Amino acid sequence: MTSFPTQPLSPLDGRYRAAVAPLAEYLSEAGLNRARVEVEVEWLIALTDRALFGTSRLSEVQKDRLRSLYLSFGQEEIDWLAEKEAVTRHDVKAVEYLVRDRLSSLGLDGIAELTHFACTSEDINSTAYALTVKRAVHDVWLPKLRQVIAALRKMAEQHKDAAMLARTHGQPATPTTMGKELAVFAWRLERVAAQVAASEFLAKFSGATGTWSAHVAADPQVDWPLVSREFIESLDLGFNILTTQIESHDWQVELYDRARHAGGILHNLATDVWTYISLGYFAQIPVAGATGSSTMPHKINPIRFENAEANLEIAGGLFATLASTLVTSRMQRDLTDSTTQRNIGVAFGHSLLALDNLLRGLGEISLSEQVLLDDLDGNWEVLAEAIQTVVRAEIVAGRSSISDPYALLKDLTRGRRVGAAELAEFVRGLDIGDAAKQRLLALTPAGYTGLAAELVADA
Predict the structure, then answer these.
(1) Which residues pair with 203 in a beta bridge?
(2) What enzyme class is recorded for this protein (predicted)?
(3) Which of 101-105, 187-191, 367-371 has the lowest mean pLDDT?
(4) Beta bridge partners of residue 238, listed in sequence order
């Protein structure tokens, strides 16, 4: 058997590459290394800005040239790091050597020994991960989630008056509107999106075991915790002052739990819309040239929602693993987090792919209002709730002598279909006031939606 040319093992880097490519700018190995270079360079600038150890402030031109090391980071640097890491067997050390090499070409050999000064790898890594994850979430994942929320809000407003038979426990229940049900998902997702948007992204920069020991040995007169805090905050990150060798990753645990929570709501949306399609509530809009089934030409399969469902399950499993693994590190350091964090992009990739499919799927369905109305017209017994509640109010008002309105309606409707004529005859025979009786006689399943339409505005 012949071997294939090099092929991507993950579908995220193969079949679904186009949908998740924006995440690779941040959460790929190259994205991480670019951020590591950024941290190393900015630390050099921060140290020289303070003229530590007899250095002078760099000119703005020199700073710009230094910053070009990460702003222009590309294939040449990727290849250079790969070759160097093959020798060093240490990814962060390879980054340090890259910066030192470029300092020489920039004529800045005099500050070469400040490269990676007093840092442990986790100082660079925790900062780089905070930068890349924050940028991936805020620039890619969260905007896509908000696109889905916006699509749901638009559909909710469009269908706010579209009366629909509710199905609690899968059984006919008090009617609602399709718009209100979609608004529920928009409201739930917006709440979690706001939590994600408010997430902290923390880094540590305190040396080998979080004590600034090497820093103090080099210059005990410097307020090193302040220097580190100001450096990390200059990168628009939060500073974790109290750590072991590693940043404790609690912010990541919180973030991934929120992303998993959002995924659970999205999964609920996918399965509900799939079910509405199967009931005929939504019709799928044919896509020119697309094939639904290899053998049944009539079919249009709800593949967008099925794809989203599966990818959300994969993403949820990965987010749960990230959260449960990263919360623990043996004593002052172990390396379980190193391999674990390399899968952050995979988790967000499957989540982003699901969001992409949901957004596309919502744009490829149209509401079949007549199907909804026909369904309502076949279930007049759902008005039993309204009738028994009105009777109760009439009893309290002294306009009825009925002893057990719930039992009365249960005997009439439980486990059987009741048509409009039969229900009207029943209402006419009730011992209630004329105004209440006329109100009930005018009621239909399609008109029994309460404040559903108005609630859409709250989404």
Answers:
(1) 239
(2) lyase
(3) 101-105
(4) 202
- State how far the alpha carbon of 265 is from the alpha carbons of 37, 192, 207, 275, 437, in Å: 37, 9, 41, 15, 42
**155/178 Cα distance (integer angstroms):** 9
* Tokens (6 digits) for 123: 């100082």
Residues in the chain: 459
- pLDDT of 246-271, one tens digit each? 888 999 999 999 999 999 999 999 99
Beta-carbon-side half-sphere exposure of residue 318 (alpha carbons within 13 Å):
21
Containing 367, the helix (H) or strand (E) segment is: strand 365-367
Of the residues 3, 56, 59, 169, which is catalytic?
169
What is the chain's alpha carbon radius of gyration, rounded to the nearest angstrom?
31
Task: Confirm whether 169 is a catalytic residue.
Answer: yes
Question: Higher confidence at residue 136 or residue 89?
Answer: 136
Residue type, 389: T
State yes or no: is 293 an active-site residue. yes
User: Dmax of the chain from CA atoms?
Assistant: 100
φ/ψ region of 10 (left if φ > 0, alpha if ψ in -120 to 50, else beta) reads: beta
Among candidate residues 293, 324, 338, 366, the one labeled active-site is 293
Query: Do strands 365-367 and 282-284 pair parallel, antiparallel, or not at all (unpaired)?
Result: antiparallel
Domains in the chain and their CATH numbers? 20-120 (1.10.275.10), 122-286+296-369 (1.20.200.10), 378-458 (1.10.40.30)
Q: How confident is the model at residue 339 (pLDDT cuts 50, 70, 90)?
A: confident
Give yes or no for residue 352 having a pLDDT over 70. Answer: yes
